[in-house]
């Protein structure tokens, strides 16, 4: 079988292909409303493995006085378990068949360029969606569950304190529950562990609707009409939450889903990005593009794909255009029948550093 070569001669610049992939990914992470990159921002590394010390107590210890000529003391860091793991490859590939090329033969070069770049952008978006889905797993479950070709079945557990995956004393579907009191208990628990207030409380829409119709929520927000079967208003709820109780505001989150391959059935399926039976006490988001290990919940590491060494691709990298991060390319197969493949590939992994900066409380 003939060797695959990059289809670059007079048709498409491999640097352009990679640039389109990286711009597509960056635009999705920074501008898409579904992006969770501010909580696990991207960080490029020249490695295939990671080693982290979970930060169990990130609070800064006050400095110590010393006598003149006395020794300075170092800080005693809060720390948790150490974890070692590996970045994993994630990719998408599309074929441009002999028939497709024939259909474009009257405008072959320009049509092929457009097709190649459309596929590159689609492949990069597919990788963005998978990374964001795993960011969601890292945030809301403090676990990753990876499935893939080659029999890949991996679960990565980031060791969240079991007390930060609690169940409400009474579920919000129970008329006897006191939702405000439950949120106060969890807020205090969050503060005691992290020494900072949670920035927001995320509620999936199904939970928020149950919350708004709960009789004790209605009574607390509009006592004059407590016996009427109506909803509390969003404005009134957040006024009680923030102004009266000192809780962070509620942010309603729609029931977003992502389509993934089911490697057990060979079909695709829609899965929830956010669990639909919990509320989430969330930290303040950071920058989607500038990781801060001492502030952020975690980080998404992007390593160097082995496919950056493919002929044609390996010549485009320099000090400013580095190898870590997503790459893409167009491969031509010289064997009969001639066809092309467009791929995007990355070596990546969301990694949680401070797993207890999210409290996920089951309420339904």
Outline the structure in words:
- With 364 residues, the chain is an alpha+beta fold.
- It contains 7 helices and 16 strands.
- It has helices at residues 14-31, 98-103, 108-140, 179-194, 205-213, 215-221, 234-244, and strands at 5-6, 42-44, 49-53, 82-86, 88-96, 143-148, 152-157, 200-204, 250-253, 257-262, 267-272, 278-282, 298-302, 327-333, 339-352, 359-362.
- The protein starts with a strand and ends with a strand.
- Helices cover 27% and strands 25% of the residues.
- Strands 1, 2, 5, 13, 14 and 15 form a 6-stranded mixed beta sheet that branches.
- Helix 1 packs parallel to helix 3.
Topology:
Layout: E1 5-6, H1 14-31, E2 42-44, E3 49-53, E4 82-86, E5 88-96, H2 98-103, H3 108-140, E6 143-148, E7 152-157, H4 179-194, E8 200-204, H5 205-213, H6 215-221, H7 234-244, E9 250-253, E10 257-262, E11 267-272, E12 278-282, E13 298-302, E14 327-333, E15 339-352, E16 359-362
Helix pairs in contact: 1-3
């Amino acid at each position: 079988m003939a060797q695959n070569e990059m289809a670059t001669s007079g048709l498409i610049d491999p640097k352009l292909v990679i640039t389109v992939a990286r711009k597509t990914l960056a635009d999705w992470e920074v501008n898409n409303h579904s992006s969770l990159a501010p909580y696990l921002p991207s960080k490029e590394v020249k490695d295939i493995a990671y080693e982290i010390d979970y930060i169990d107590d990130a609070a800064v210890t006050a400095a110590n006085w010393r006598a003149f000529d006395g020794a300075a003391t170092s800080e005693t860091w809060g720390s948790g378990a150490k974890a070692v793991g590996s970045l994993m490859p994630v990719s998408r590939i599309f074929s441009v068949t002999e028939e497709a090329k024939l259909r474009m033969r009257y405008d072959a070069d320009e049509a092929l360029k457009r097709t190649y770049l459309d596929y590159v952008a689609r492949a990069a978006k597919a990788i963005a969606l998978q990374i964001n889905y795993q960011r969601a797993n890292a945030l809301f479950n403090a676990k990753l569950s990876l499935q893939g070709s080659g029999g890949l079945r991996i679960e990565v557990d980031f060791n969240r304190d079991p007390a930060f995956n609690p169940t409400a004393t009474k579920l919000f579907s129970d008329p006897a529950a006191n939702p405000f009191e439950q949120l106060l208990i969890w807020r205090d628990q969050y503060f005691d562990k992290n020494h900072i207030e949670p920035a927001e409380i995320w509620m999936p829409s199904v939970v928020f609707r149950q919350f708004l119709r709960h009789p004790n929520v209605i009574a607390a927000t509009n006592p004059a009409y407590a016996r009427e079967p109506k909803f509390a208003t969003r404005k009134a709820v957040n006024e009680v939450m923030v102004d009266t109780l000192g809780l962070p505001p509620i942010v309603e989150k729609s029931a977003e889903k992502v389509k993934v391959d089911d490697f057990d059935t060979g079909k695709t399926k829609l899965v929830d990005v956010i669990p639909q039976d919990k509320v989430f006490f969330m930290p303040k988001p950071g920058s989607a593009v500038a990781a801060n290990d001492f502030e952020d919940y975690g980080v998404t590491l992007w390593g160097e794909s082995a496919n950056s060494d493919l002929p044609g691709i390996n010549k485009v990298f320099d000090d400013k255009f580095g190898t870590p991060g997503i790459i893409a390319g167009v491969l031509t197969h010289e064997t009969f029948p001639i066809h092309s493949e467009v791929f995007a590939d990355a070596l990546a992994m969301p990694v949680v550093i401070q797993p207890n900066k999210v409290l996920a409380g089951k309420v339904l």
